[in-house]
């Protein structure tokens, strides 16, 4: 925990490698002090087919899923840090956004909890 899933237009991974984009999101999340390195998971989904406001403008949207317990200021800062970083490395991408959602401890379960 947390999980950051990056959706983007396929052209974005022609501008920067998927590994570089994922590492920047990882490093940004780590820099907030909210997570340890072993907790952070990042994935990327490039899309060949999409309709972005009836255009084919490049886009990046990050879906962040974190364990409940962080306050609104911490989540806001996390969002700002990640979008700012992505904008710095990919200034030619006109749409860069993120949303953060909480996992509820009461209904989260993984293999290590068996």
In short:
This protein has 3 helices and 4 strands; from the N terminus they run E-H-H-E-E-H-E.
Structural key phrases:
3 helices, 114 residues, alpha/beta, 4 strands, Tautomerase/MIF_sf, four-stranded mixed sheet, single chain
Topology:
Elements lengths: L2 E7 L2 H4 L2 H14 L9 E7 L11 E9 L4 H18 L5 E9 L11
Parallel strand pairs: 1-2, 3-4
Antiparallel strand pairs: 1-3
Helix pairs in contact: 2-3
**Which blocks of ≥5 consecutive residues have pLDDT under 50?**
none
Q: How helical, in percent, are the residues?
A: 25-40%
Shape: globular
Overall pLDDT: 96
Radius of gyration, CA atoms, in whole angstroms: 15 Å
Estimate the strand proportion.
25-35%
Q: How far is the N terminus from the C terminus?
A: 17 Å
Order of helices and strands: EHHEEHE
What's the arrangement of strands in the largest beta sheet?
A: 2-1-3-4
Overall SS class: alpha/beta
| Number of helices, where a helix is a run of at least 4 consecutive DSSP H or I residues | 3
Largest sheet: 4 strands, mixed
Q: Would you count the extended β strands for me? A: 4
InterPro entries: 5-COMe_2-OHmuconate_Isoase (IPR004220), Tautomerase/MIF_sf (IPR014347)
Protein name: 5-carboxymethyl-2-hydroxymuconate Delta-isomerase
Pfam family, one: CHMI
Please describe what this structure looks like.
It is a single chain. This protein is an alpha/beta fold. Helix content is 32%, strand content 28%. The chain has three helices and four strands; from the N terminus they run E-H-H-E-E-H-E. The longest helix has 18 residues, at 72-89.
